[in-house]
Amino acid sequence: MRENRETVLLVGLLAIISITALVLGVVGLTKSNGASPGEAQPVNVYTSGSSDALTSNERIWMIAIGHYGSNVEYLDEETYTIRGFNPDIVDAVCSIANKNCKLVYDVYGNCWDSNAGQRPRGGQGLMGGWYDGCSGWVQSFDRLLTFSFTKPFMEANKVGMYAKSGSTLSYSDLTNLKVGFSDGWAYDEFCLARYTDIAGSSLRQGQITHFASTERLIEALNSGEIDVIFVSALSQYDSALMRITPSDFENKCLKGGNSVMTRHNNPDFVNWWNDAFDRLVQRGRYDEICKTVSDRHGHIPGRDYTELCIGY
Fold first, then answer.
1. How far apart are CA 280 and CA 282, in angstroms?
2. 144 lies in the same domain as 260
3. Which residue, 213, 243, 273, sits at the end of a domain?
4. CATH number for 140
5. DSSP 8-state assignment for residue 234
6. Which residues in 9-132 belong to E strands, given as ranges?
7. Total domain count for the chain?
8. Are residues 97 and 163 in the same domain?
9. Are 122 and 146 in contact (CB under 8 A)?
10. Whether the Cβ atoms of residue 233 and residue 159 lie closer than 8 Å to each other
C-alpha cells in the first residue's frame, strides 16, 4: 500500500513539473517574438525580389515641379497630374536609378525667389529642405552661386522681348520704358543689364515690375501698365504679343541648360541622377522620349524635340 502511494505521488510530481516547463516555454517563446501574451505575432512575408521592393524606411526623393501650360510641364485636367517632357524625364531617370521619386507641385518662387530690384536668391522650399530638388531649372550665373545642378537634360529656351501687337517700340532702346519680368525666372533685370549694346538696359527701380504668371504679364502689357516684357520666349507670348527682338537674339542669361536644381549639401542626389541619366542616354531611352514628345503631349503648345532636347 505504501509503495503504491509513493508511486502515485511520484507520477503527480512529474506531471506538475512537465506542465510548469510547458508554460514557461510558451511564455519564453512569446517574449522572444517581442509580443505580450494575448497579442498577435508579427508575420514576415518574403517575396521574390523583395530586396528591391520599397520598404517603409526607404528614402523618398522629393522633386518639386510647377506648370506653365507648355508641353514641358502642364496640368492634365482629366487626371489632375502634372504631365509633359519634364515629368517624363524624371520618371525615366528615377526608374533606371531604382529610386523612389515623388513629384510634388509648388509655386516657382519657393524654388527660386526674386523681387523687383533685389538680387535673386534661393527659395524657401528648396533652401529649407521641403524637397530634394526643383526640376527643369536653367543654370544661371546667380543660381550657381547658391545651388548645385545635375547634368542638363533640356535645351534652355530662347529669351525675347515683347510688346503689344502693333507697337512701334524698338528693343534697342529701353530708356524710360517700364519693363515687366516673370518672377523667379532667370530672365530678370540683372540679366537684361548684361546687354550693354541696348540703350537703357540698366533699369531704375521705378522701371521694374515682376509678375507671378504669364497671364498677368500679357494682361499688364496689353493694358499699358508696362511697355515691354523681357522673358523666356514661350509659345504663350508668341501667340498673344509681338516679339520685337530678332529670332537669333543672343541669350546672355544662362550658364547651362535645364537641370534639376538642388542644395550644395545634397551631393548624393546629383551623383545618382547623373549616373542614371548617362545610362538613359546610352540605352537610347532619352532619344525615344524626345522623338515621341509630340505623340504624348502634342495637344499642348510648345517646342518640338529638335528645340527641346540636347544634341539635335
1. 6
2. yes
3. 243
4. 3.40.190.10
5. -
6. 60-65, 74-76, 81-83, 100-105, 112-113, 121-122
7. 2
8. no
9. yes
10. yes
pLDDT digits (tens, 9 = 90+) for 114-148: 888 788 999 999 999 999 999 999 999 999 999 99
Cross-sheet strand order for the sheet of 60-65? 100-105, 60-65, 133-140, 254-262, 148-149
Question: For residues 32 and 201, which has the higher predicted lDDT (pLDDT)?
Answer: 201
Specify whether the CB–CB gap between 110 and 125 falls below 8 A. Answer: yes
User: What is the share, in percent, of the chain residues with pLDDT greater than 90?
Assistant: 67
Query: Are 230 and 252 contacting, i.e. CB atoms less than 8 angstroms apart?
Result: no
Strand partners for 138? 258
Distance CA 206, CA 35 (A): 70
Phi first, then psi, for residue 173 (nearest 5°) are -145, 110
The answer to whether the beta carbons of residues 226 and 116 sit under 8 Å apart is: no
CB atoms under 10 Å from CB of 89, counted, come to 24
**C-alpha triplet 202, 203, 208: angle, nearest 5°:** 145
Q: CA-to-CA distance for 159 and 166, rounded, in angstroms?
A: 20
pTM: 0.73
CA distance 222 to 201: 22
What Cα–Cα distance (Å) separates residue 101 from each residue in 59, 94, 104? 9, 6, 10
* Cα separation, 102 vs 94, whole angstroms: 9
Contact 91, 140 (CB under 8 A): no
Q: What is the pLDDT of residue 185?
A: 87
Dig out the grid coordinates for 85 from the structure: 517632357
Find the length of the chain: 312
For residue 113, give the 3-state DSSP assignment.
strand
Q: Is 53 exposed, middle or buried (0-12, 13-18, 19+ CB in 10 A)?
A: exposed
Residue type at 108 in one-letter notation:
Y
